[in-house]
Amino acid sequence: MAIKFLKQDQLPAFLGYLAEKARVVAPVKTDGVVQFEPWTAGKDVELDVLLAKQSPKEWVFPQTETYLKFQYSTVVPEQSDEGEDAAEGAVPHEMIEVESLNEAPTQVIFGLRPCDARGFVQMDQVFGGYGGFYFDPLYNARRAATTLLAVTCRDPRSTCFCAALDGGPAGTEGVDALFTQVDGGFTAEPLTEKGETALGFSGFADATDAQTSQADSVKSEAVTKVDAPFTLEGIRDNLHDNIEDKGWHDLCMRCISCGTCTYVCPSCYCFSINDELVEAKGERYRVWDNCFNPLYTEETSGHNPRAQKSNRFRNRFSHKFWYYPDKYDSLLCSGCGRCIMHCPTRIDIREVLQVMGSPRAAASGEPTEAEGKEA
Amino acid sequence: MADSGKTCLTLDDVVAGASTARAGKKAGNSYLPEVATVIEIIEETPTIKTFRLRFDDPEVQKNFSFMPGQVGQLGIFGVGESTFAISSKPSEKEYIQFSVMKAGEVTKALHNLSVGDKVGVRGPMGNGFPVDEWKGKHILYVLGGIGSAALKATIEYTLEHRADYTGISILYGATHPTNFTYWYDVEEWQKRDDIELVLTIDRECDGWQCDVGMVPTVLERMAPKPENTIAITCGPPIMIKFALISFENLGFTPEQTYTTLEKRMKCGIGICGRCNVGPKYVCVDGPVFSLAELKELPDEL
User: I want to staple A162 with a disulfide (CB 3.0 to 4.6 A). Which of A36, A167, A280, A359 is the partner?
Assistant: First the structure.
């Protein structure tokens, strides 16, 4: 497919063209914070800041997504004479309607980075029922209606490590069309049918040889700027062998279990499901959850299979580099480095992988007394 | 990444808008519960009730089938869902049943249900017991307390297909005579001479005719032979722990020892991520595991 060129000053017109048929989502700076937001005419797309604070994950997998509405014909009894327990569990009767929601507007995400796009490809495995598991209609409807127009990372940050994970600043996995900033504008390479369609805007010209070769050198130069502090080889097996290693206790020491790393991550997908009921009307929704929260696994009896912070800490990294690859033949990390940037206690996934993803001396799984007590 | 020949499902594999129960072998919207009505409530013990439910759509009720040991998500709209073993007989076509111990938010609300109330059911989920592979073997059930609910369908299935198995033994323990679930069925089991049934309570009690002693102790006293036998246990975690030790003492290998696990679950379909034990999800890879499989997993039970 032919490489095209878009002049810098044509970008708003291009987004306007896309917005005629779809919701356009792009990184926009508001009050100093760059976030993926619906783009409307007049908004400036922010591409100088490499990564928006959060990945565009929420546009395909919303933070909170109501998927069921229901209606009872009577309201919840307010008081019960059987004591507090009975009142707490009081339920309405005679349901009249249950409606399932599956909203999936056509949308184009412009300005995401190759690591962000790769995050979607990684999540596609679990939501797509890879290997015969369940298919997630909510995610897939949105995913199918989404076009990803990524922009090459011209100037990767010190926290980027995509190159260590077989990715790169001009990676194309999951990307429908790849834009690269060159003199005077962007080259644009359509990579899929969706990408080809998106590039149907008449403001594109065919890229000149000079422009394509400049794009090539931007890409190859960017690759040299990405740190690759470890290799993937052996990580899975070492995480497996080191599961009871004391290193986990040391590494998790300063973690405050806030879960920020999971929320900013382009591929953390774990969620909770909750119900709300107001009088006779209610909703069931799913909402992002994080595996650092003790309540994530705590059972009604009070038993918690991951009672210690180190167990929960271990789960996140093992999930991304061992459990998920075993089940879905895919990593669950694209090396964007957001978790490193936003961790309030400066926990660095690269360090965790260097330490726990390497062979360790004789494993010792005995927690310290203090560790055993905290919950 | 490695190509193992596994592929994702596509929208073509999906019956649009259908629940798991309705979609049958194809994929549907597995988050969508089928509305069912409570047709009977049995007070099993002071804290356990059995709910018999009939799907509001007769077609769904007619076509609902499950493997013994599979689970379902039972919920009240507006309160939430929890995972329970399906405790009716797989051959029962008139209703499906769940037995629920009152413990947390959802189970308290379930205990407040009356006959005629509406609930939501998703399922069946999970792997179930490999009862067909076990044909020609002796099956030994060791259960305690609410653990009976997880094994009830399987016990009934093997009793219905008694001729397929060389023997059936059931060791069932409870803290007190009033804490046995399904007593009406236990009385039927007592009448049968083609099964070995041992009932035990933790402490002596007036009028109690059967064994006294903790389940693992009674198990070692029973001294079942491991040859050609499958041992299955479910009960409170502490009972399972010691029953597994007893099995080992009796010479049972990890490959012939099975249990069924519980975890805090949400989606029930291997997506939401919370019921994992290492790389296995209890909701789709379990809830049934052999001890050999469990030994491969991180100690996060």
Answer: A167
